[in-house]
Amino acid sequence: MYDVVVIGARCAGSPTAMLFARRGYRVLLLEKARFPQDTLSSHYIHQPGVALLDSWGLLDDLREAGCRPIDHQSYEAPGVRIEGFSLPVDGHRTTYAPRRFVLDPILASGAVAAGVDFQEGCLVNDLIQEDGRVVGVRYTTPGGSTTTEQAHLVVGADGMRSLVARKVGARNVIEHPRLTCTYYSYWADLPSHFELYERPGRWVGVIPTNDDLTLVMAYFPQDEFARVRIAVEPAFEEAIRSTSPELYERLAAGKRAEQMYGTGHQENFFRKATGPGWALVGDAAHHKDSITARGISDAFRQAQSLTERIGDRLHDEAELATALRNYEYDLDKDFLDAYRGALNVAELKPDQKTGMLSKLVGHQDLIDRYLSTLSGACSLDDFYNDDLLAVLDQS
Ligand SMILES: Cc1cc2nc3c(=O)[nH]c(=O)nc-3n(C[C@H](O)[C@H](O)[C@H](O)COP(=O)(O)OP(=O)(O)OC[C@H]3O[C@@H](n4cnc5c(N)ncnc54)[C@H](O)[C@@H]3O)c2cc1C
Fold this sequence. Notes:
Helices cover 38% and strands 26% of the residues. By secondary structure, it is of the alpha+beta class.
């Protein structure tokens, strides 16, 4: 019998398994994919995520994997251009945007090094429940046979369409309609930094990644998804040309290296995240529009929070129940603002903020603090301080 079975071995699952194993627990990590395998995602890891990777001892592996360091950001919308970078978190200002077939195996290797029993190519089909408590999992092995494992806690790190959530009937406690859809690809020979461009109804991101490639992505309103998905390339070109003609010229001089990828499944929800014998982390617990690029860092933080809250209390039922309630409290406390922020950005209405941002030009400290609200290095309360109000009053 395992202490913990974790389902899903990417940004949420591998760190959760690793951190439980480092506390001395016997952990099984089940993943239906075989790594390295790509997944739909751009790759930007904000400062809080980089700081956690370092605290876990995994940042050097990421740096050695050849991902271009990022330490400069620009944002441009009609009437405003700002440049700067988020404040550091625990001394980390430089960020990275690794391909997922680079990042996810590093996370899984960290789990294995901590003693986790990692089994790839294993599809979990069901949970075993007794007297209203989850007590194990049933899964198909790579050889095609069905097997079961018992565990004191089953963690669903199995993404937005979580099987664990479905099987325990975890309802959405907060939900909002989809707001955007997005498409992206990779360019070679493209001089770039971390660049964001916006106009009403369009958002374009430029993110340097591994192998000297640059990811370029465009966001559209959700109600354009039916039109965009059947003619992705012309829609993408129009989005770039009409949002940043200068970037459009640069792309024309570079070389597209891969196909287009994209999705309209930009769900926005918080689920009931814990119950007797089970917990959800990462996208399984809480999903938001990808436009603010917070999912990876937030999954790391949730792995840290769940494992810290449980600590050495896994086998005491009353204490475990309290720890799980505290973890849910952390989810609300730590991620509700970022969730609201993502919904706000995903409305694709730059006019709501460009007036304020244009007044920050010339005040580099305030620009960096604003960018820090997007990274999670600074709270909105800290941003809306007296210095900001004085600048807004003057202009
Ligand atoms: C277009 C797009 C762009 C994005 N850009 C960014 C970005 O720049 N920065 C950022 O921070 N976030 C970004 N995100 C969000 C980020 O990708 C997710 O938040 C993150 O991947 C969540 O990690 P996770 O481990 O919770 O889930 P996932 O990455 O979805 O991993 C879940 C894993 O569970 C496995 N699994 C599922 N069901 C089973 C089962 N039954 N049995 C066994 N295994 C199972 C899956 O195979 C998968 O490997 C983006 C997302 C999208 C869609």
